[in-house]
Amino acid sequence: MSDMFKVEIITRNSTDLEAFKMKMAEIGVSGMTFSHVQGCGLEEGYTELYRGVKKVQNVFDRLKIEIVVSSVPVDDIIKAASSVLHTGKAGDGKIFVYPVQQTIDINTGKQGPAAL
Fold first, then answer.
1. The whole model's pTM is what?
2. Is the dihedral of CA 81, 85, 6, 103 positive or negative?
3. What is any one of the record's Gene Ontology cellular component terms (predicted)?
4. What single-letter DSSP state applies at residue 15?
5. Three-state DSSP state, 63
6. In the chain, where do the E strands start and end?
7. The predicted structure's pLDDT at residue 2
8. CA distance linking residue 58 with residue 61, whole number of Å
9. Is 51 exposed, middle or buried (0-12, 13-18, 19+ CB in 10 A)?
10. How many CB atoms lie within 10 A of CB 68?
11. How many angstroms separate the CA atoms of 31 and 51, rounded?
12. Domains of the chain
């Protein structure tokens, strides 16, 4: 069985998804999952006045992209994602890579890389 990896990207909510999907298609990525999430990190927050009380807002809307691959090199995904998502400002996001032990297609029953 060949190695499978999950690439998880947390980035700005304002990301151009069409440009990202086209870049992934160029390197052979055929499926992705997108989720809208919230989080905080090194990016500075801002102070807002709510009903006369100052409140520091440091939780931001983010986009979470999940990709599981076996035949596309993870380094290619990292390079392609970085080229599209990099702005040079705090909050560009992070990329995490995890090994995937098993994948099962519920519809067909295929397992491993064939299930992708």
1. 0.82
2. negative
3. cytosol
4. -
5. strand
6. 4-12, 33-39, 46-50, 53-57, 60-69, 93-100
7. 58
8. 10
9. exposed
10. 19
11. 45
12. 4-115 (3.30.70.120)
